[in-house]
Amino acid sequence: MELNDIVSSLRVLVENKRALIGSLILLGFILMALFGPMIFPLDMNPKFNLVYAPPSLEHPLGCDYIGLDILTEIIWGARDVLTIVMIGGVITVVLGSIVGLVAGYFGGVVDLLLNTLVDIALTIPGLPLVIVLAGLIQTRDPVSIGLILSANAWAALARSMRSQVLSIKERDFIEASRAIGIGRLRIVFYDVLPILMPFVGINFLFAVVQSLYASVALFFIGVLPFSTVHWGTMLNIAMQVSGAIFVPYARHYVIAPVIFIILLQVGLILFSYGVEDIFNPRLRT
Amino acid sequence: MSLQEQCPNIYDIDNLTVEYVLRNSSVKAVTDVSLDISNGGAIGIVGESGSGKSTLALSLLNLVPTPGKIMSGKIIFNGDKDILSLKGEELRQFRWKQVAMVFQGALNSFNPVLRIGEQTLETITEHESIDKQKALDKVNVLLKLVRLDPERTLKAFPHELSGGMKQRAMIAMALLLDPRVLILDEPTTALDVMSQKYILNILSELRKRLGVTIMLLTHDLAICTEVVDRVAVMYAGRIMEVAKTEDIFMRPKHPYSLGLMQATPSVFGDVKKRKPIPGSPPDMFNVPKGCPFNPRCQYAIDVCRETNPPLEEISRDRLAACYRWRDVS
Amino acid sequence: MKAENLLEARGLTVRFAAGSAGLFGKATRFSAVDDCSLGVKEREVLSLVGESGCGKTTFGKTAIGLIKPTSGTVLYEGKDIWQLSRNEYAEFRRNAQIIHQDPYSSLHPVKKVYEIVSSGVRYHKLLPTERKIREKSIEVLGMVGLNPPDYFMNKYPHQLSGGQRQRVSIARAVILSPRFILADEIVTMIDVSMKIGILNLLLELRENLGSSFLFITHDFGVARYFAEGGRTAVMYLGNIVEVGKTDELIMDPLHPYTKALLSAVPVPDPILAKERKMIELRRIDPPDPVNPPPGCKFSDRCPFLMEGKCDVKLPELVEAKDGRLVACYLYGS
Fold first, then answer.
1. Residue A63 gets which letter from DSSP?
2. β-bridge partners, B102
3. Is the pLDDT of residue A252 over 60?
4. pLDDT, tens digit, for every residue of C237-264?
5. Which of A45, A263, C39, C45 has the smallest count of CB within 10 Å of its CB?
6. Residues of B in contact with C195 (CB under 8 A)
7. Which of A170, A173, A177, A284 to substitute to test the interface with C, most C CBs within 10 Å?
8. Over chain B, what is the mean pLDDT?
9. Nearest to C212 by CA among C37, C65, C95
């Protein structure tokens, strides 16, 4: 990737309004995760005088069940959330792509074996599997959590990548590469994959959204141990400890994480509108 | 009264300009085209990609798709109908009843899930309220005219017919409502050489039997030796030359026509005499100033690069748009 | 002993499944290429003419090893290409290249011309440094008439015209200096005014590289132009029906199908055209390729049909006269 390509990709992004908004939202979250905790220190000491304090100038999102500022908690939670879902997304996509690409292009026995694997993974229902795994492998390590989250999400991607590859591999320019004598593995990753980058990109973003909801669910249910302030955890506490949806004055404690979860998802989806444009060579010239 | 006496020209096209208006730019697909198509005659419009011939044909039916717009000019049908001002029901009646068009890639315009018979009858009953039996009879007659077995063809699905058969069925369908003019856009391009010859023969016959005017659009100059008696050569949206078939082939007076003749590899004739036309087809977003052919023309002089040569009558029934037509040989 | 032919197909048959298997039956298989034998010598040009669906493209791709035949062999320098050692196969692979018909699908849409053209050289490490690869690519782009080469190196295919793309395709094939090139209908989708230019380029490259060509086309005029000093083979529904020196074959076709084809070819001469009549065939439309008639596949349309002979057994390709092979009972098959 040369500098030229990066610059023109950015230009394309800017021209697509939806993607632009999406990327600004995502940028906001990333900055929040990277620098937020430095700017907004989290004081873990309970302040009983501020329990369920409604939103005010000093505490824009109000305070939680032990008087801690919700906005600060959200900011600190962002780091964990983003790490976990990005890892989940990356693992899903990398695993799914490799399996799909290789199965689709190589065909024959390789295809048969990989397909069987994919079929097995697909028959196991997603969320329950993730919940069970999380319950068994009690971990706080974001990478492990990411792995658990992508337990069978990769399979669906493998399946659809494979069918994409099946149609691409008949194309003339692939045949030309074969005629030149280029090896199969090289063709798969250097000729076929670049064509599918928009597909991979969009699937990555969807995988991230999927991981987001799965991780929120895990923390919400309480299957994963928490020590930091993950938004799912906040929801968990809000629901169970405070019965926040029933108690009107504690409503802001539930609404805040929900809003940010949705906002992150919106950002991801809006950004995905630009993915296809970024990989389109016609728009870069 | 013969066709010619009724009305000498079935189409009078006057200074037609058609432009495709895009977001940041526009393309003049047809520029300043004036052409007479004689009643009962057969004319071939020869042009490569970008020549504008398809757009010209669509204009004759006022079917230019958006973002195309007819910017100026007149198209008069049968001496009295101004095509460009027809609207609504009148336009609908005009299209397909008076003038029918067989589009490029017509082989693919059959609905693959319906039998040919079902699709054909749909066309007639949509346009005319004649009873089903009469319609069927008509279809039978036309299918026989294009040398198809009516029973077998009507019962068949499109994929059961060969390319040549589908094309002939398409031609039969186009003739269902007895149009005065039949326009065919590259009717034989995707077909094998024998089907092609066959279809060209059939078109000649149809012309004799039904008196229909034929307009044949093609990039292949050679097929103009069949069916058509006049040829118009188009380039970059303009007409370069119009002449009788024999004249175009034996004595072309436009450098582009001459170039086409020399650049077509043929089964006969001296192989050594073949020459390519230098350069490449014009970028329609950036048509050269003056005569659009000038960058590739061996006869080009300064005036050619400045002003576009008008299409002039250089002898009886011959038109050429070239300042140096006298020198072309 | 050196093999007579650089590349030779012997009894090549390629069968495909046509349509689906249905509930109880097996999928119909049809022979796209049916028992074809044809050889191309070093530095020779052979035009393969036939209508669409006759199997010429399948034959060509099988001959250069891109398709595995159902039966029969392909010999490169006398050796079966499917039995070669890894190194021998690698050498064969480099020396048998293809130029595709459709310039709009033969180039990788997301790669620049430089990358497309140099991929072979780079992968096989034929040149030691990136700079040398770049120089070679520039040289080849110049050879195919894409000047200035620097300008074209950084373009994406969608920025080029059909003719230019086809030249890039040619450059990609030629950069490896292959001994054999399969040109599959390469000017069919090119504008008339540019066809001869591309053909001339190919002829020039042939002079400089000494490659053999198998030139596939449905257009006799193009076949003649390209293979003027070479041979032409005619295919019909999977069979080779006639082979001979190009000019002789065109002036004096022997096989009824060749005669019919040539009689139907349009000629850009209105006076000549009026005199030429297409040979009357018994049936104008070709049969379903999946269900050809028994015996000679042309028998249901052939005006010279000899019942009891032609419709029983497929005639073999035999030498009818000096250098001319015909598969027809009229000539002693």
1. B
2. B184
3. yes
4. 999 999 999 999 999 999 999 999 999 9
5. A45
6. 263-265, 276
7. A173
8. 87
9. C95
DSSP state of A58: S
Q: In this complex, which of C193, C218, C225 lies closest to B277 when CB atoms are compared?
A: C193
At position C34, the amino acid (one-letter code) is: D
Phi, psi of C56 (to 5 degrees): -65, -40
Percent of chain C with pLDDT over 70: 96
> What pairing do the DSSP bridges indicate for beta strands C7-18 and B312-315?
unpaired
Give strand pairing partners of B14.
Answer: B74
Q: Is pLDDT at B126 greater than 60 in this prediction?
A: yes
Residue type, C180: F
pLDDT at residue B1 is higher than 60: no
The CB density around residue B169, as the number of other CB atoms within 10 Å, is: 26
Integer Cα distance of A141 and A83 in angstroms = 10
- pLDDT of C70: 94
- In single-letter form, the type of residue at position B219 comes to H
Q: Tell me the pLDDT of chain A averaged across its residues.
A: 84
Residues forming beta bridges with residue A285, ordered by sequence position: none
The amino acid at residue B66 is T
C88, C123, C151, C172: best to mutate for the A interface, most A CBs within 10 A: C123
Tokens 């098959």 appear where?
C333
Residue A111, Ramachandran bin (φ over 0: left; ψ between -120 and 50: alpha; else beta): alpha
Tell me the whole-structure pTM to 2 decimals. Answer: 0.87
Cα–Cα dist C184/B144, whole Å:
37
CA distances from B186 to A134, B267, C42 (A): 65, 21, 39
A62 conformational bin, left if phi > 0, alpha if psi -120 to 50, beta if neither: left
Spatial distance between the Cα atoms of B52 and B28, rounded to a whole number of angstroms: 9
pLDDT for B256? 94
pLDDT value of residue A244:
58
Contact A179 C64 (CB under 8 A): yes
> DSSP letter at C292?
P
Touching partners of B (3+ C-beta pairs < 8 Å): C
Mean pLDDT of B144-164: 86
pLDDT score recorded for residue B158 = 86
* SS3 label, residue C191: coil
Amino acid at C195: K
B225 vs C199: CB contact, 8 Å cut-off? Answer: no
ipTM, interface predicted TM-score of the complex: 0.90
As a whole number of angstroms, the distance between CA A276 and CA B10 comes to 50
